[in-house]
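Translate sequence into structure tokens.
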Amino acid sequence: MGKRLFISYDGEDIKLANLIKELFCCGTKGLLNDEIFCDTFATREPPPEQIRQALCSCEAVICIMTPDSIWEPWVTFEAGGGFFAFNTYSSKLHLVSAHKIMHEKLPKPLSGINLKVHDLANTEDLEWFYKEVAKVLGISNDIADVKNSLEKIKEEASTSSGDWRYVRQALIVERGIGESPFNFKRLLAIAKTNFLLVGQNCHFLVRNMDISENKDALFNRLRSGVNVKILISDINDPVAVKAWERITDVANNRYKRDLRESTKKFQVWQQEANEQRLPLDIRATFLSPLSLTIINASEGDSIGKIVLTPMANGDSNPTTRTCFVISQKEHSEAFKHLKSVYYELFNAAKPILTSSGVKSWLSRFMQMKTKIQKSLKVENKNA
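Result follows.
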């Protein structure tokens, strides 16, 4: 029996592939199992002739794009075969994405072709995709017939991806923001002498909902004499940024955007602290692969603490994840070593206010801020 539908996927996505197969079998006049080519060839090399025959005979090719499959050579190979094969309507290829993969994260040339990528986690996109393929196959495109199957696909496609699911149980992502005893403001409050914060981008400090409160807490501690250092990744190091994006952010395309926003906000904070002669020092290094806070690390103190926070893929606040605490008093050797390593890293990093372009931009920003403040004072006097 000739194949009418070809489903290409990585072995990690077999559950999603089987749900899509079930989708096109369960509707009115649905396909038979034998009419669908859906094989990962997990234990052997794919026979090219079998793939060629299936691609030639089928009426539609569905390629499932996920953080796992985009690096699988056979998936992109089969996508190419589907793209250059045509049926009565158009190219046979239908791209679908899952686990929060973004269109621009697809490898070239897939990211550059003019073809809709349907997000299986989006109800509208999912229904559009089903109707589109059902029309090509000549089966019913009535959503009511396949509602349960569509809901299962959406649920599966919305989950986190890859090996991160194995560590998910260790992440305290269900807690509300601020409940962790090791969050930024609580650690800052107990810092008596110095405070070093290291992170990918420390974006949680400058998010719109938290920025005012976090900035006030930081500057109050600076005025009380606490020496604060912050170290983030360097937005101007494209190689490091791209490497970290590939490792942790392939699904949501936020890391670079958040790092850019954090850098701009921290530049403003640094400028304001400099003008007020406050002991704030923010720097950027090539890569910060974890979140780390060191407080009260002065020589001779026995009250120092280091808080290590593992990175996690997806939307969770660093202050709500599992933390590892190293006490200067109880773990003196480990504390001494980590303190030395990360202070050396900080000292070798470049100040966040370095390039002339940054200084020029900040200068214009501060001038505008001063003008606004003056105009407000004049308005208040006139009132």
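Note: The longest helix spans residues 356-382.
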